[in-house]
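Figure 2 data, in text form.
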Amino acid sequence: MPIYEYECQKCGKVFSHLHRRLNEAAPVCPECGGEAKKKFSSFSAKVATPGCAHADACPAAGGHTCCPGCCHHH
């Protein structure tokens, strides 16, 4: 279930909305009830660097095989 960020076209309020099913209609603004448009969102991910301090605790199968760019260390 993705969470999208919306901006109201009437009052400018920015808010998040959790979509519970595919093709769900855009929500209305919780402040004024105006039409909301989905904002372009970016994402962020933390990645480990070579020589990762968490090497011994890495959940990758067979030991520490996932750094650099490990998605297990947050």
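Caption note: The chain has a mean pLDDT of 75.
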